[in-house]
Each structure stands twice: as C-alpha cells, then as structure tokens.
Amino acid sequence: MNRKRFKRAHSAVVIVIMMFGVLGADKTSLAEEQATSYLPVDPKEAFATTLERLKAAKGKVMQRQKDLLEERYDLAEHPAEGVTMTGGKRIQEGVRVKLPEGVTWARLAAMSPAEIQSQDAWPAGLYPLPHPNHPEGGMVFPEFHIKEIKKQEDRDLTRFDLDFDLPDHFLPEFPPPIFLTTRPDLGDVSHGKLVTIENYYELFNGILNPKQIEGLRLLLTPFPQQQFNQTEDRRSERPSRGVTCFECHANGHTNAATHLAGDVRPQEFRHRIDTPTLRGVNIQRLFGSQRALRSVEDFTEFEQRAAYFDGDPVIAQKKGVNILERGSQVHFMAELQELLDFPPAPKLDVFGKLDEQKAAEAEMRGQRVFFGKGQCATCHTPPYYTDNLMHNLQVERFYRPQMINGRMASADGPIKTFPLRGIKDSPPYLHDGRLLTLEDTVEFFNLVLALKLTEPEKKDLVAFLQVL
Fold this sequence. Notes:
This protein has 468 residues and is mostly helical. The protein starts with a helix and ends with a helix. Helix 8 (296-305) packs across helix 10, helix 11 packs across helix 13 (455-465) and helix 12 (438-448) crosses helix 13. It has 2 domains: 79-127 and 345-465, Cytochrome Bc1 Complex, Chain D, domain 2 (Orthogonal Bundle), CATH 1.10.760; 132-337, no CATH class. It is 34% helix and 5% strand.
C-alpha cells in the first residue's frame, strides 16, 4: 500500500472509530435516561461533593414539603379533652384535612366519585402523601428518636439531606409502653424507657426466655441499611453502623418513622410507608408492604434482606446486607415479636365488644354505627378488628392521576386491613399516614364507602374507636 492510500485508509478507520465512540456515548446517555429497576451501584461522585450538594438543597426540599403539608392540613396543636394514648400523651382531635374553597364535607358526601373528580373537589389531604423527599426516599426518623439514640448509644440517625416532616403532636407517644402476651400482670415492662442495646438485658432478664432475649438483642442491633452504612452513597455524614428493627418499631410499637415501599418501580410510583405497630403481630397473617408474606419469620428475613435496601439485593450486597440464619436468629426474632400485646382496653369484654356497664352512651352509639351503618365490621371484625385480608378501596375514582412533590398520585392498589385494637396509639393513619386524626379517617371512609353518616354518627364512631 502506498503512503497516500495508507493515510486515506487510516483516516477512514479513525473516523469510523470516532463515529462508534459517539454512537456509543449516545446509547449510554439514552440508557441513563431510561427507567431502570436498579439503583446505581458504583457512584462516580465523591462523598464530599454529594454531601455539599444535598446539604445545600435541603432547605428548599423541606420547605416544599412544609408548604404541601400546610396547604393540606390544619397542623395546629388541638389535643382532645380527657383522651390520651395508653402512656398518657394527649391525642389530637378534629378534622385536619382542609377542604377546597366553597366545599363542605356534607356536599362532598352527596356527590358521586365522578362528580368529585370532574369538579376537582377531592380534598388535598386525602391524596396519597409523598415522602419528605420522594425522588430520594429512604428511612427518616423523628427528631425525638434521633436524640434518644444519640444519647444512649452515641449513634447518629440524622440525615444530612432531609428531616422528618410531620409535627410531633401528630405522632405516637415516645417512648411507648410495652405489654407482653405472656406477662399481662407486669403492665408496661419498658418502665417508661426506650429499649435499646444498652438497656434491654437489665429490663428483660428474668422475664423472657433465652431465645427471646437473643431475639430482642438482634432486633436492637444496628445493621447496614441503604441510607445508613459505610459507603460513599450513604446519607449520614459519618460512616454509620446502620439501623435496628426497633428504630422504626420503637419498643415494638411505632414512632411513625417513614420509608418508601421497596416493591414498586419507578420511584414516583413507590408508596410512602407509615411504620405500623408490631403490637398484636401474633394474630396477623399477612406481612410486608404488599402483604405477600405469610409469617412473621418471612417478614423478619425479608426486612433485612430487601426492605432495608429499597428492595434492591444488588445494592444490599455492596452495603453489607445482614444475612440472618433462618433456623435460629429469624426464629428468635419472630418469637419475641409475637409476644408484643395490644394495650389494655378495659371497656371491652372477652369478645372485643363494649361492656355495657362500663361504656359511655356515645361509645355505645358509636359501636352500633361501627357494626351497622358504618359497615366498618365488614373488614374490621372483633375481637382484634381485622379480617387479615387485603382490600382495594379504589380511591383513584375520585381524582385524576397527578404528580405531587415527586409522588405520582394514582392507584394505591390493595391495602391490608390493619387491626384497630389500640388504634388511638398509632397516628397518623392509613398506610402512608395521610390521615392525621381519627376524625380525618372517619371522613375519608365516609366518602370512599359512600356511608352517608351524619355529624353525630361520625362523632360517636370516633368515641368508639378511642376505646378499642
């Protein structure tokens, strides 16, 4: 080949290589823009850069969520007179969901779902509630829990990119009492303390058997989690040992810590989770965010293998997933959880209904609404007030799909019938915490189920729920 022909051939090869390089880059860019089921395993941004960027954005992110909550709800502190949670915290009363201008609850109840949708009259507070930062997601803990863990264990659960969003007066009491099915004679075995790895032995030695003691230790041991671990894509400023099961299920109950369901993709369709209580878990038969798990053992193993890492086992391997041993560790943890009892309900008889000698007239009237016009007992059957099934409320009948702070408000799908025993201790309500009070919950179901309850009937129903 002469020199000129070689130069022409060489130039052609270079052009082809460059073209393939450009095409390859275009394909890579296109792939990055497409939806993916996986989290980025190997981030290219240095931790210091991530920290600086997300810290700088935090104020704007939290202000957007604050504005949304204030638009939706009356967030003022209005405690009910003479009604407290089991440990003494006063519950918040009244309907807190704000209505569109010119709309009343009575008018809404008289409208069909199609009419409400066409007139855009569905109250903002009844739409699905987004995570404090829905595009980012992950576990977020109330400030009171963060402070207590810092005090007891010198372990910091603060996220540098966002904070918990709901005011403390709408959350469960802290620390919540603990009641055991095996020792009802002892009352609250927590003695008013948050149970942690620091104090569990002194509190429970002599009450639990050796398997249960070990199960409790594991439930209180920090293990790596998506946002709290050692890697450069964590969301804690310092490398973290991780979180515990009782970080969200404080004292085997709940502190209303939030997260995103790990079983939905893409991100905007993932549901916010309001941490459910573990009280009475022994009588439940469905577990997990889509309730596909059939035992407490399955649920316990699933949580640390998948839910801790946003449902992504690939990222879990990188961040240090804790693989529990099924025959002992999982069994021990499950056995402990199955001892967590509902709080006492002194007005209920052995069938879970009101004792007429102890109940007030309003509570008795509320019970009649519950089992009659309200149709509540169709799903919430006594004595524990659950049918252990899933039900699809089809709330999307009332509104058009729309994006709300990064959350696509569309169909919720089937949701579990949670037990109503001790319900006053577990605000906020519904699977994502969109309902701040029992009154909000009654208004929600009055619309969704077309119950046509009167104002006195709604009030009596709340009175009944407060004594369950």
